Amino acid sequence: MTSKKTAHIVSHTHWDREWYLPYEKHHVRLVQLVDALLDKLDSSTAFRSFYLDGQTIILEDYLQVRPENKERLEQHIQAGRILIGPWYILQDAFLTSGEANVRNMQIGHQDALKYGEPSKIGYFPDTFGLVGQTPQLMLQSGIRNAFFGRGVKPTGFNNTVSDGGYESSFSELIWEGPDGSRILGILFANWYSNGNEVPVDEAAAREFWDRKLSDAEKYASTGELLFMNGCDHQPLQLDLPEAIAAAQALYPEVEFVHSNFPDYLDALNAELEKGGESGTLELSSVTGELRSQRTDGWGTLVNTASARVYLKQMNQKGQTLLEKVAEPLASIAGLAGKEYPHHLFTYAWKTLMQNHPHDSICGCSVDEVHREMVTRFDKSRHVAESIIEDSARFIAGAVDTTVFAGAVEAVPFVVMNTTGWSRTGTVSIELDAARLYLREGYGLEETSRRMQEFDLSGRVLLDDGGQALACTVEDLGLEFGYDLPDDKFRQPYMCRKVKLTFEAAEVPALGLRAYAWTTQQAAAAPAEPSLLSGGHVLENAAVRVEVAADGSFSLHHKQSGAVYHDLGIYENTGDIGNEYMYRQPDGEIPLTTKGLRAAINVTEDTPFRASIEIKHAWEIPASADARLNEEQRALVYYPERTAQRSSETVILQLRTVISLEREGKGLHIESTINNVAKDHRVRMLFPTDLQTPVHHADSMFEIAKRDNESAAEWQNPSNTQHQQSFVDVSSAQVGMTVANLGLNEYEVLRDGRNTIAVTLLRSVGELGDWGWFPTPEAQCLGEHTAQLMLIPHTGDGVTSGAYAQAYQFQAPWTTFQTDIHTGTIASGYSPLSWKGTEAAFSSMKMNETTGDLLLRWYNMSGSQAQLNVELDLPHEHLYRTGILEESTAPLPDSGDSRHLLELGPCEIATFGIHLRA
Questions:
Q1: 577: which of 59, 175, 533, 583 fits an S-S bond (Cβ 3.0–4.6 Å)?
Q2: Which positions are annotated as active-site residues?
């Protein structure tokens, strides 16, 4: 430790927009805080600066109520006394997508620039663990640091810290990402409130600083000591200049400064460059994910991944619609001449991201908070759906459908694939087979009669080559509809609605294909064998699935010869924990559906897809026993609770539908649970019987490699972990990928079979943490549906294509009905094609400032990779950029439309395409 000591006191407040109080109650307190801050800054130059929690949404929230104070805010921001950004909101890391985090940084910078300069601080004060690609994302944002409170050193109840077993020797460390990116990490070793409420009184100040200086020196690598003056929703300490003066008088050997993060970093980096007092100081290096794995496992907050699963499912849908459907479609429409709706995207992303703070998306707040979140999810989704509809209409209108001009009564439509890979699969579309507008003069009764009598017989589905396709037709009957033209009043109509379901084959990546339903005579679709054998077996060229009497099933992967047994069994355990952490009652033996007879029926048998329905009536305990309520009210720490499950039972109704498509490589699973029980958890089990000490899970721009066994320090019997799109267990030759939609919690069980357990539902009745906050709606009573896909494969998930299939599973097809017309886009069109086994496609959007098309991939492997990209669009040049999309020098011109692009190991690679005017 160097002899020089400087106490850097940074004023801040950590602002959870919503948590143990609903948003508006926190909002009122925020307005009061910023009012006080502005008054203090106006009146006192001794109060030097304030850090506004790293999120620009605080400015929006404040000015919503106090718009008259905008100029005062701007004045202090531009003077460097209020530091803002770089984020729009402080998000959870593991429950939000990579693209959502990129938009968060982009919008935070855009909004900060309206007031001044964004602070280049990687701020994660209370994020519940951090993803491995954070260093790379920071460097691409021009940020060379990360300040964080969790993930490396044990942080437990009331934020106490342990006294040993640290992964870093100091609170300062070097954090390295999987691509080799290195940044300076600053751990809030004594939490982000270690300089809170500094006394002015001499005696109190001496007691305070004796303790605080000692605590900081215990972890600091240099004499630059960081003290955070603030905490959750902490009001401003108005007498801080006086408190600093009192401390300086008591400790003349220490320099006390009212500091800020940039000044602290400058001083710290200067000391680190000197190597400390000895000149030989070396910081510890920490690599990859920061998930508190070197702890006892009780305070990791990992089970927020399964609190209120319905929120995670809504978030997955909202993110996917924006980043994987609306943005690509708006880009394709933009290339065809439609204006790109940047303003709507910003609004939709902001509304969605307001649900992304850790106390929100983690499901660990009071019920009022999560009710409002549902409304926000709906609002963002409605905007996304409007963009999708407008873009799809424009694209369909630009597709040349004259190939169907000779067909009788043809009803053309376009199928769009907005994923990054060519796609074959089952598609459904609702068509207006016939339509009569009320403006046409028929009475309502006559209009309805004509539509009801419309003849649907003798029709066939044609592809763009004139070939008939097998399809099912469901008559949806008479339906009311309306158009909302841009140039006239709404146009109501009555129509005859049908639903077509068929296999769309080889729809290009980021492209489309046209079809038509017509009465034209055509050769019948070639006969295909059923995918069903009897009532209990599904089989196609890739897999054979056999359902047992108890509803479990085996899966035979034909290419590798591997057979997986006992798949799809449900597990149920009690949960006497809270929204933050799962806690199984002591000594409880899990219940399962193994051996419980199921009702098994065929629900679909077509040439392109077959489905089997499995139903269980499962008797389980109704809730925890009465002791749980007593322990909750007494604030008994959840690992120390002794409650058990009730002797009263209820019937849990389970409905599982497994579906196999003709060209499918995996098995689709839909699970519906009518939840009438409390204080419990339901998982679905997938034994792999593969011998391997590690597994892989999808994380933010990364396929994270994780150990099956927990660290030696781990005491929690449960070792659940986060996932995004999938988890995979593989041996050298074969593997099983389990993909999901919004099911963010899994565990690889230490049961000798390396079983993948995916949480479908978790029911608890309290928030947890620092007090007694009942949350009856977190019991999640009622019906819940979950979607999964099993993807067996050879080799690893990257080279086999299993991970690409899991990513494709996330995104829905887009369809749009149109008419016969000429157009500038041919069926089968895509603006680009690409090849690169190791690459995962992530994003296609347009830049608001330049109008350039931005494409992003990331390298799923730890080795150098190549992308072969061919562009079918007029462009001047390509350039490589970062996540802030700043234009850079063009890449070397290939001389034609083909480009060979290099990807570094685990690189997040963004390319701009400067379009030709």
A1: 583
A2: 126
